[in-house]
Amino acid sequence: MPSFWRLRLLSACAALALVCCGATQAQDTNAAAPAAGADSNAAAAPGTPPQPTGYVIPPPPDPAAAPAEPAAAPAEPAADVATPPAPAISAVNPEVDPLRPFGYVIGDIVTQRVVLEYDGKPLELGALPPLERTGNWFERRDARVERDAAGRRWLVLDYQIINVPEELRAIELPALDIETAVSGRRLQTTPMPLTVAPLTPNVVLARAGLEEMRPDDPAPHIDTAPYERGLHAALYAGALLVALWAALALLRQFNARRRLPFSRAQRDIARLDAGSIEAWRRLHRALDDTAGQVVRDHNLPLLLARAPWLAPLEADLRRFFEASQTRFFADRAVDGVEPRTLCAQAAKLERSALA
Amino acid sequence: MKLRSVASMLAVGIAVSVAVAAWEGYRLSKARDFNRLVDSGIDAAATQDTPQAEFARALSLAARNDYEGAVRAYKDLSRSSDGDLLQSVLYNLGNLHLREALQFGPESIGKSLPLAELAKSSYRELLRLNPQHWDAKYNLERALRLAPERESAIEEGPPLPQNSERAVTTMKAFTLGLP
Question: From its phi and psi, is residue A103 left (phi > 0), alpha (psi between -120 and 50) or beta?
Fold first, then answer.
C-alpha cells in the first residue's frame, strides 16, 4: 500500500510539471505574435511567410547544426547524388527591330526582325518557327534568317493579318519562344501591340463601289505584248541576217573578181580594144591559169577536167582555139569569135562555181 | 569555201527567223481575235481553247447561276494557271462562294457558314500571293462579317482557376435544351 501511495504522488507531480511547462510556452508565443505582426506592418516584407499562431511544432533539427547524428545522415546525400539536377532553362530576350505599331488593315504583312545575338555572341536556333496560324489575327507566312550589311544575323518573320476586329483596336503580334541550339536556352520575345482597323463598315453604304462585295474580275484579255515582242524580234533577226547575207554575197563577188582568172581577164579585156591581139592573149592566159598549164586545142579535155564548170562552153572554146590559130599564124581577123564575150561567159560560170 | 559555208548558215538563219515570225504572227492574230471576242461578250470568248477562254466559260456559268459548274471550272483552272490569271481565278472563286453564302444570309447560318469559310479560304490564298489585292481584302472582310472569327473567351478572359470547368457544355449533369 505505501508503495502505491508514493507512485500516485509521483505521477501527480509529473502531471503538474507538464501543465506548468505548456502554459509557459503558450504565453511566450502569444507574446511574440503581436510583435511579429507589428514588424510585418512596419517593414512590409511581402515574402515573409505568415507567422503561426497557437501551438508551434518545433522544426526538425538542422543536420548541419547537429553533427551529433552521423548514422542517419549518409542516406540523404546519397539520394541527392543519384538524381541528376533538373536542367536550368534560361530565357534570352534579344533586340527586336521596332515595328510601325499602327495603320494596319486585313491582308497586310507585318515583318518582325529579331537579332540573333546575345551578349555579343551569335545565337543559333534549333529550328525556325513553323509557318502556321498564330492566334486569332495572324498567320506566319515566312521565317528566314538574313544577314545585314554589318554582318549581323536576323530572324525575319513575316506575319499576315488574316482576321480583323469590327472596329479599330490594338491586337498583339504573338510572342516568340524558340529553342536555341544551346540546350536549356530559349529565345523569347514579348507580344507587340499593333492597331488594326476594318476597311468596311458593319452596314454597307450601298453606294457605287461600296456594296456588299466587290464585283468579279472580268474575263482577262490575252496579253499580246509577248507575241508582238516575239514577232518583232524574229523580223529584226531576219532582216539582220538578210543584210549580213547580202554583204557576204558582195564580199564574195568582190573577192572573185579580184582572184579568179577569167574574172581578172574580163576586167583587163574591158580596158582593151575589142579586136586587139592583146585581148586574145589575155584570154589565152586566163585559160592557161585555170588549167595550170598551157592549153591548146588538143588538150582542151584537160582544161575541162580541171574546170568542169566550163563544159557548157566547150564548143565555143574549140572555135576560139581554131580562130586563134588563124588570128595569130595567118594574121587575119576571124568573124564570129569574140574574146571579150567568151571571157565574160567563162567568168560568169567561174564565179557561180567558185565564188 | 569558208565564205560559202557562212552564207549557207546565214541562209538557214533567215529561214528560221521567217518561220518564227510566221508562228508569232499567227499567235498574235489568235490573241487579238480572242480579245475582240471578250470585248463582244464572255459567251463568245468561251468558245476558244485558251486558259483565258476557260475563265470566260466559268464566268459565263456563274452568270447563269450554275454554282457547281462554275466552281468546277474555276477549280480546274486554279490547278493549271499561274500569275495574274490564278489571282483572278482565286478571287472569283471566293466571290462565287461568298455570293452564295450571302444569299442564305445569317438567318440560315448552317448553310451560309461553310460557304463563307470556303470564300475566306480563297481570299486568304489570294492574299498570300498578292497582299495588295484590295478587292480581296474588302470581300474577305465582308466574309468575316458574315462568319466572324472572334477571340475565344479562353484567350481574352482572365486565367481560369485550375481544374475549373471551361464551358457550360462540359458541366456535369447539365444538358442544354432539356428541362
Answer: left
Instruction: Look at residue A129 and give its three-state secondary structure.
Output: coil
Tell me the chain A residues in contact with residue B21 when contact means C-beta distances shorter than 8 Å. Answer: 231, 234-235, 238
Contacts of B85 in chain A (CB under 8 A): 220
Rounded CA gap, A96 and A115, in Å? 6
Instruction: Supply A43's cell numbers.
Output: 517593414
pTM: 0.58
Query: Looking at the partner chain, which of A109, A219, A231 has a beta carbon nearest the beta carbon of B25?
Result: A231
State the ipTM, two decimals: 0.74
For B158-179, write each residue's pLDDT tens digit: 444 444 444 333 333 333 444 3
- Say how far apart CA A244 and CA A206 lie, in whole Å: 66
Q: Do A139 and B14 touch (CB under 8 A)?
A: no
- Give the range of the structural domain holding residue A276, as residue numbers without chain letter: 257-354
A317 is a domain residue: yes
Domain count, chain A: 2
Nearest CA distance, A231 vs chain B (angstrom): 5
CB within 8 Å: A241 and B59 = no
- Give tens-digit pLDDT for A44-103: 333 333 343 333 334 444 434 334 343 333 334 333 444 445 555 677 777 788 889 999
Contact B10 A248 (CB under 8 A): yes
Do residue A170 and residue A264 come from a single domain? no
B91: closest CA of chain A, how far (Å):
7
